[in-house]
Design a protein that fits this description.
By secondary structure, the protein is of the alpha+beta class. The protein contains 14 helices and 26 strands. Among the domains are: 91 residues, Gcn5-related N-acetyltransferase (GNAT) (Aminopeptidase, 3-Layer(aba) Sandwich), CATH 3.40.630.30; 102 residues, Gcn5-related N-acetyltransferase (GNAT) (Aminopeptidase), CATH 3.40.630.30; 119 residues, 3-Layer(aba) Sandwich (Rossmann fold), CATH 3.40.50. Strand 13 and strand 14 form a beta hairpin.
Length: 557
């Protein structure tokens, strides 16, 4: 027997009774509004379900949930959901998942205690309506966010602390927190628990909370993979000057016309291209080549220049690969989801093989144009049946490095033009490359490079601005982009009159919209962007590239 207990402001309580009128369980039903990809949609929810412990096996909870679903079906609400205390329990009943509410628990010693806090303040009583209005605007542009007329004010303002982020008098975000008891004997409250954090965008969050860098390793890895798919002839690609300059690597083959010939003796067509051979990896050693350097088969050469100039070089080399139109991907994890979003947006067809049926369902719902196959991506028969060889590129993104290695080797044997594999263990990277797999992506390595860039910039806070930093040749060299400032030495001095440190190459000068491959008569001007290649690292500032002071005959520096 079902009956309504009472109807408070937050929703309605329904009870389940036996024939004697004994309450066996109850459910709190709440009406929300949910943002479904920009459309504000009515939604019903079960905030909680409780049952008499001694009568649990009488399917009381299931009966109450069936009542909830029937009620909202009759009322026309297209969605009903739960606030689960045990997601696995509800998953077995066939419920899906939308956005999750995540709690943050930073230690007090990690909380920023310096810098500009002028935009931060505790919320006052007269801020209540402004905060609620800001939250409503945020919900209207945020997929998966919900509105509830009663619960929203209580969820926010019942917390002990509400901090607002303001810029120019406008609220740009807020977060709520409390201190939780962690020592019951001394009654010591010293752990901070952030309950809710809402903000305009990541830039706002970084600025208002004083965060130097936010990095998502999976997203950063997906961006690296998308670059390799855009330029399949290259083993690795790094970008500078907002994409106007690229540094790529490739292995020299015996049939290449540059094998066995010095760089200075290459044809005028090659020498006329605005590109530069900036590094070479041979036998595990990294060096900066000059005109007399003779490439050999097996060398890994690094070129830098405009993207279209590099494209022309590979055409003349006979290694030009047409644009990738279809990608075969094994593994449906986070990197795959981000990559699918990028490729779907630029119109590249994608086929994903994933073992988990639940994960397959999630991918197919989020990306309707992606072909999703539920199966074992290491099964060669499955790969053949799904016409692997019809794809232009293959990407292995499972959570096991060994599986990625095996299936990537198989794809390479099948003749696919571009094979990219994910490898988290750095010890495997050398083995993978020795087997002919050039394009290896490591989320850990990508993350380390981003962090190294920030750390270098902090060490060099008083010198030239470091815009980007990339580690190349398995960390044997670094490629850095600096902005020339007023404190940079030897401005307007021809490079032929300067002496650089051994193992350092000034590779490119970006001046306004011009990409300059430096010559002896070239010089640095304030505002230039300069790309430096340094073997072994050690360059923190643009002034660090210079060797012993040259005798300039009284010329100003």
């Amino acid at each position: 027997m079902e009956g309504e207990l009472y109807r408070p402001d937050e929703g309605r309580y329904l009870g389940c009774f036996d024939d004697d009128g004994t309450l066996l369980g109850s459910i709190l039903m709440m009406d929300f509004t949910l943002n479904v990809r920009g459309v504000m949609t009515p939604m019903g929810a079960a905030a909680y379900v409780s049952t008499n412990f001694l009568r649990k096996k009488e399917h009381v909870a299931r009966t109450l949930l069936e009542v909830l679903m029937r009620y909202y079906a009759r009322s026309g609400a297209p969605i009903s959901c739960l606030h689960p205390f045990n997601p696995a329990f509800y998953h077995k009943m066939g419920y899906g998942f939308c956005n999750e509410n995540t709690l943050y628990a930073p230690k007090p010693c990690y909380i920023r205690s310096f810098g500009d806090k002028s935009g931060l303040c505790y919320a006052q009583a007269d801020d209540r309506e402004a905060v609620l209005a800001y939250y409503r605007r945020w919900v209207e542009r945020t997929h998966g966010a919900t509105l509830h007329h009663y619960m929203d004010p209580h969820r926010i303002f019942d917390m002990p602390y509400v901090v607002l982020c303001r810029r120019e008098g406008r609220i740009t975000g807020y977060f709520t927190f409390e201190f939780v008891e962690v020592d019951h004997y001394t009654d010591c409250y010293h752990d901070l628990l952030v309950r809710e954090m809402v903000y305009d965008d990541l830039d706002t969050l970084k600025r208002d909370l004083g965060i130097t860098m936010l990095i998502n390793p999976e997203f950063a890895s997906s961006v690296e993979i998308s670059r390799l798919l855009r330029f399949p002839s290259a083993a690795n690609i790094d970008t500078f000057a907002r994409g106007r300059v690229e540094l790529i690597s490739f292995h020299v083959q015996e049939t290449d016309f540059l094998a066995g010939r010095s760089l200075a003796s290459l044809s005028s067509k090659i020498q006329g291209l605005p590109i530069l051979f900036c590094a070479v990896e041979r036998g595990g050693e990294v060096s900066i080549p000059n005109g007399s350097f003779v490439p050999q088969a097996g060398d890994k050469l690094y070129l830098i220049g405009r993207p279209n100039s590099l494209d022309q070089f590979f055409r003349q080399l006979g290694r030009y690969a047409p644009k990738v139109k279809q990608v075969f991907l094994v593994g449906g994890g986070k990197v795959s989801m981000y990559l699918a979003s990028i490729l779907d947006r630029i119109g590249i067809r994608l086929k994903i093989v994933e073992r988990s049926e639940e994960r397959c369902r999630l991918i197919s719902e989020r990306f309707p144009r992606v072909t999703v196959i539920c199966g074992d991506g290491t099964d060669s028969e499955l790969l053949e049946s799904e016409n692997l060889t019809a794809s232009d590129a293959f990407v292995a993104l499972t959570d096991r490095d060994e599986d990625n290695l095996i299936i990537s080797l198989y794809a390479m044997q099948q003749g696919l033009g571009k094979v990219i594999t994910k490898c988290n263990r750095q010890g495997y990277a050398g083995i993978v490359r020795s087997l002919g797999l050039d394009s290896v992506i490591s989320p850990k390595f990508v993350t380390a490079s981003h962090i190294l860039h920030v750390v270098r910039g902090m060490q060099n806070s008083q010198g030239s601005v470091m815009n980007s930093l990339h580690r190349i040749a398995d960390g044997g060299a670094e490629a850095m982009e600096f902005t020339v400032g007023p404190g940079t030495r030897h401005l307007s001095v021809p490079l032929k009159d300067l002496k650089l440190r051994p193992g350092v190459l000034l590779a490119v000068i970006v001046r306004d919209n011009n990409i300059i491959i430096p010559q002896g008569s070239s010089s640095l001007q304030e505002g230039d962007r300069v790309i430096i290649i340094a073997r072994g690292g050690g360059v923190l500032d643009l002034n660090d590239i210079y060797g012993a002071e040259p005798n300039l005959g009284g010329a100003g520096a």
